[in-house]
Task: structure prediction
Amino acid sequence: MKVFFWRTLMIKDLQKTHFYEAGTRSGIFGKWGTRLIFLLALGFIPGAVLASEGPPEYETTKVTENVYTFRWQVHRNMFVVTDEAVIATDPINPRAAEVLLQEIQKVTDQPVKYVVYSHEHWDHILGGRVFKEAGATFISHEKCVPHFKETPHPDLVFPDLTFDGPAYDLKVGGKTLELRYFGPNHGDCLIVMRLPEEKILFAVDIVNHRTLGYRMMPDYQPVHLIRSLREIEKDLEFDRVIPGHLDPIAPASAVSEQRQYYEDLMAAVKDAMRKGIHHPGELAKVVRLPKYKDWYGYDEWMPQNIERVWAYYHMGW
Result:
């Protein structure tokens, strides 16, 4: 018997954490999660079977000759190898950063000269000390700095270089990595990164291929999120997207599909509220959006996405 899923963890406990995001798109955590745990508890499915079928804790995927994406559990980042040095992004956590450095050293002997933070959230940017000790310069948007000062973390490396405004071009070894800020959308300082020569976009958290917003969409600002996605579509040219979770690579259409989902969600919730439905639990019964029924997280996260949009229309939050 084969049971495929990303990480071997108790499914019900997993649903309470960000790791739940790692379940396969087959819906194993949603429809069958409780049954699997029940059978496992009764001994009908040996724990060894579950452990043996999961993928490795990390993996590195080669996207182009010099662009790679590294996955640690459910988080992923990107690194770029140039003739002079390596540009790394989001170190994730201390253990992930150590493994990331080892993975980089497998493909090049160039040093990591820069580490670029995508935004301020700890689940993506902790653990960079191993790169700092090797001499790397850390970069973020200036608007991340207040957050770093107000909520310090012992595993956070403070940025050495920040930029204020919509754009900064990082040029290393004949390669350019464009850093673009589209205002608040998920947190206050999220930037997307584009490799113009390869036409690759690295977009963390605001784009995940055919995936709903994560649970209650923590720190997402729905209206600004839609605006940002629309501006990315209009202003940036790219053929492929590296998301911050799940799939290693997605088509360019992932951006417009994600934006359309949020627009449809907001319109459906607003329409239901105009008709007199104001409790989020009741809204979840009538707002279904079957167009997205095959997207990851549909059964589990749709009610929570609805509640997040309800909070916007109800409280302006």
In short: Residues 1-52 have pLDDT under 50 and may be disordered. The first strand starts at residue 58 and ends at 62. The CA atoms of residues 270 and 313 lie 7 Å apart.
